[in-house]
Write a structure and sequence with these properties.
This protein is 76% helix and 0% strand. It is mainly α.
């Protein structure tokens, strides 16, 4: 089993999940509560990675962060390095690719919060930021946890996007899914089986946790 690739994938998935929670939760809040007529365009952009082939998304990300692009040129001036075929570029691509897996569950959870409770908080003079922190987030905690779990698991299993943007550099961009591909290409089916079973176990654990959250197995207050 390629433990180096597994550790790299865990690091990538953890960093991606943290970034997506920081950026995706406010975006999900805006989608749930905004009354803008063009909101559907933002929702379509967020959901685009669900239907766009990973290689196509990876290709456009590669163009967007290349050394001749504004983003790539700015990064090169600030750090002296390049985003393509680096962990940082891989992280950026993973955030874009897993964005809907965070935003959609969280937005659905926010939409399910009773608006009367939110309006009551506003009527009591509580600010919108405090209402979000004290009322909306606790009531939508299961949806936020579901988004985090799905984002982590989705990043762990990425292949097309990470291969296009990061390539196959051991210890830098070779994730566990790429490692399995290399093992199969080398006819090392024993190692491929072990690594695949590892991902299978993670996928099952993620689905079990997600369904448990949806069924309120871990509810703080039992139903009467």
């Amino acid at each position: 089993m390629d433990y180096q690739a597994i550790w790299l994938s865990v690091r990538l998935a953890a960093a991606t999940t943290v970034i997506l929670l920081a950026a995706g939760v406010p975006l999900a809040y805006w989608i749930s509560f905004s009354r803008r007529r063009w909101k559907f365009l933002v929702e379509a952009v967020v959901a685009l990675p669900l239907v766009l082939p990973p290689t196509v998304l990876g290709f456009y990300v590669l163009l967007a962060i290349g050394p001749h692009s504004p983003v790539g040129a700015l990064y090169a001036r600030l750090t002296g390095g390049m985003l393509p075929f680096s962990f940082q570029g891989l992280l950026l691509a993973s955030v874009l690719y897993s964005l809907p897996f965070t935003v959609q569950p969280v937005a659905a959870a926010f939409a399910g919060v009773d608006r009367k409770l939110v309006e009551a908080s506003w009527c009591l003079g509580v600010s919108r930021a405090a209402t979000f922190r004290r009322v909306i987030v606790p009531l939508a905690a299961r949806g936020i946890a579901t988004g985090a779990i799905l984002s982590f698991a989705h990043t762990m299993g990425e292949f097309g996007v990470v291969l296009m943007v990061g390539g196959n550099i051991a210890g830098v961009t070779r994730t566990v899914s790429i490692s399995i591909y290399d093992q199969v290409q080398a006819l090392d089916y024993g190692a491929a089986t072990e690594t695949s079973l590892f991902l299978l176990a993670i996928s099952f654990a993620v689905l079990a946790a997600t369904y448990a959250l949806q069924r309120r197995v871990w509810a703080i207050w039992p139903a009467n």
